[in-house]
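Data deposition worksheet. Section B asks for the primary sequence of the deposited chain exactly as it was used as input, without tags or linkers unless they were present during the calculation. Section C holds the resulting structure in token form. Section D is free text for depositor observations; keep each observation to a single sentence. Incomplete worksheets are returned to the depositor.
Section A, Depositor: J.P.
Section B:
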Amino acid sequence: MKKPISAFIIGLSMLAMFVIKPAGLSAQEPRPTGAPAPPRLTFAFELRVRVGNPVEVGQVTHGRRRIVPIEGGTIKGPMLNGTVPAGGADWQTIQADGFTELDTRYMIKTDKGDLVYVQNGGIRTAAPDVMKKLLAGEVVDPKLVYFKYFFTRKLIFVKETHAFALFPGGFGTHDEACEALTLLQTGKSSLMPVVFVDAPDNTYWHDWYDFIRRHMLQPGFISPSDLHLFKVTCDLDEAVEEITTFYRNYHSSRYVNGQLLIRLQRLPSTAMLARLNHDFSDILSQGEIMAAAPPGDAFDEAPHLPRVLLWFNRMHFGRLRQMIDVLNQC
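Section C:
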């Protein structure tokens, strides 16, 4: 059964090109000198498309390929009007857990006859039971897929990711950066690599880092080890290495009866274990750091992996990140 999609999300990237402009300034008016007027948002258009039944292609390298054909649609608004010709599609790659990568490509034909090619990328994920219904083509409550509250979106954004790469931006960029760092610093989210990436000729994040050191570290608002929760660089290769190195040996972690269990690809040697107990005794509330060979317990998501166990004090997460960096040398 064909289903209409109202206010289809794929129009959002086009929307951003039209709606952000200084208040009271048209495209034809000269830009005034002095302080710029604050920007405002203006409704540009609404895009509606008709989609056909999904076509299951089969297994590909990174998951299962599904194609949802776009059979036509309309675009209406004060800034753009036209149609969406048939022939576009949403090329979906569905991973084993239902996490779906979206790659939507289609055309817009304006009332003046101009053709505009549009390509949008995105992701879709939800709770396992909801994803099962979505993939089966069943109707689900939109609130189970789309976020109504901004803080919920940010929380899930941190929870479901494996790394952060942040580039220069506005208030929203700083908001999400500080949210992520706060969750990592307080242990409300699992540790992961966070990289602030500058262009080679730009000092945006390096200036931010200087501010952090001068106005947070020096007065004692954060600890020196908190600076190990992230990395600032203008080298893309270094940024990639920061992310991939974090998972060279480290796999994941969880708490078991009060102890922190760190899953690894390879067990540390006896000498390495002695080094960990010597260098990181300050993060222990009791006992020593111990190694354990697989298998794990029945509740372990990866029982085949070796692990280390420690009575972590749940305070010094920057120091814990330093310990993981050492484990990644194994």
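Section D:
Residues 171-185 form the longest helix (15 residues).
The chain has eight helices and 17 strands.
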